[in-house]
Amino acid sequence: MSSRRRLFGGLGIAAAAMGVGRAAADNPFATHLLALQLSDSAMEKQREVLNNANTVLKVWPDTASIVVVAFGPGVELTFADSPLRQRVDSLIAQNVEFDVCMNTIETLKRDTGHAPVLNPRVKPVPFGVPRLMELAGKRYVIIRP
Asked: Would you tell me which CATH number, out of the four given (3.40.1260.10, 1.10.287.110, 3.40.50.1700, 2.160.20.10), belongs to the domain 23-143?
């Protein structure tokens, strides 16, 4: 094996170990698995979800895998113009995954005539509830603050 190939292979392994470029739900080193359900548009609920994610990261900074699943009115947190956008982006930078239900987005598009502009850093998923069920099957604890 060439030294160049070993170097880049080693960098890839190091990046994977540090969580670089990997979504929260794909972290093979995580031992504390949390999925936060957000199906409410109330600002206090959105803040509570973000606060819960921050708390878990404080307690288990290296071993937590956190996925926020937004559907129904909860998708507002994932909009590009969300008043909490800076906090969402900060959590994404810490490998928290934000999933947005595209079924809800399509419903909003039909009802209003246009789709809301989403934060480009959120992950679209076809449906919110099945995504939570998928995460539960992977041993994630589902919390609805």
From this structure: 3.40.1260.10
